[in-house]
Amino acid sequence: PGEDWLYEIAWPEQRVPAGDAGAVPGDWLIAAEAGGAGETLAGRLRAAGATVTCVAPRELARTLATRPAWRGVVHLGACEFTGDTAPTWADLGFESILALARATVKLDGVWLVTEGAVSLGGATVRPAAAAVWGLGRVLAQEHPELNLRLVDVTAANAGSALAEECLRPGA
After folding, report:
1. 133-167 burial, b if ≥16 CB within 10 A, otherwise e?
2. pTM for this structure?
């Protein structure tokens, strides 16, 4: 009887309709450590006509103020911690994520990227990433002007999956 009181979140897979992404003009800001998914995403955005600035997450607040508006900001700080020890709030990029809420510049879209924040197909959840996901959900509710999107990826597909998400029509 007790199991009837519980619920389970189901994530049905949805295919993104194929289409011509076209150009993505404007200035994009990617907060990620050097290498990896951030560089892959930056390359794909540049190929689609965007101007891209890449910074470490700790430099996000300062860099946000360098332009009056950003077409998109992609935060990958929560994807980049490794090791067996629990990451600190700073490791996860909480300070830089909060800088997005405090930003006084126009942000057309914000992508907050995690790895292992949600269980998909029985995958193990990373509690630290889930905490970042929770912060993102709160920010999306309290700051709808951010047009915040939460994206949970695997390390193997992070760069290409993010590029598809950012380049899809209507993103």
Report:
1. bebbeebbeebeebebbbbbbeeeebbebbbebbb
2. 0.84
Would you say 150 and 114 are in contact if contact means Cβ atoms under 8 Å apart?
Answer: yes
With vertex at residue 81, the alpha carbon angle to CA 112 and CA 63, rounded to the nearest 5 degrees, is 50
Structure tokens at 111: 């992508």
**Strand positions, DSSP E, 14-66:** 27-31, 51-55
**76 pLDDT more than 60:** yes
What's the pLDDT score for residue 103? 87
**Side chain identity at 48, as an amino acid letter?**
A
Q: Can you point out the beta strands (E) in 4-132?
A: 27-31, 51-55, 69-70, 72-78, 106-107, 110-115
Reported as half-sphere exposure (CB side, CA atoms, 13 A), residue 138 has a value of 11
Alpha-carbon distance of 71 to 136, in angstroms, equals 19
The rounded distance, in Å, linking the Cα atoms of 114 and 92 is 9
Whether residue 20 is predicted with pLDDT greater than 60 in this model: the reply is no
- Work out the number of other CB atoms within 10 angstroms of the CB of residue 8: 5
* pLDDT single digits (tens) 152-162: 888 777 888 88
